[in-house]
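Standup notes
- DV: blocked on the single-chain target, sequence here:
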Amino acid sequence: MNRNAIETIMGGVVLLVAAGFVFLAFQSGTVDRDSGYQLSAEFDNASGLAPGADVRMSGVKIGLVTAQTLDPSTFFAVVTMKIDDTVQLPRDTSARILADGLLGATFVSLEPGGDIETLKAGEQITFTQGSINVVDLLGRFIFSAAESAGKSKE
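- DV (later): unblocked, structure below
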């Protein structure tokens, strides 16, 4: 009986510690969703990007992707982002969709321009580059290498 009580207490302690780690993981890696201003950007290819993805500048998280929709007139992906109030972006800022390594998470990378005027809430980033399909590039590389090897044997 004494052994069962100790095991039950230890199980409860383990669950509390696990819940604490989950809480810390969510708190440390988020930007406050209530503060900040919204910007949007149109990408020709936004594959791999989802709401909740990071928005980074110089590798530092400055916001979150809040929504992703399709523009029915241009068929481009419209990505809405919430940017931290303390970061004022120049009007000629550019946005790219990148991946953290070969199999890493996808995020939006912002590169500031040199314009004196800043983007206001609700405006759109006009200079964009969509995501690159790494699997497609790898397939093309392998196919071209096999094709060139076949030609050299002839």
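- Follow-up: The first helix runs from residue 2 to 28.
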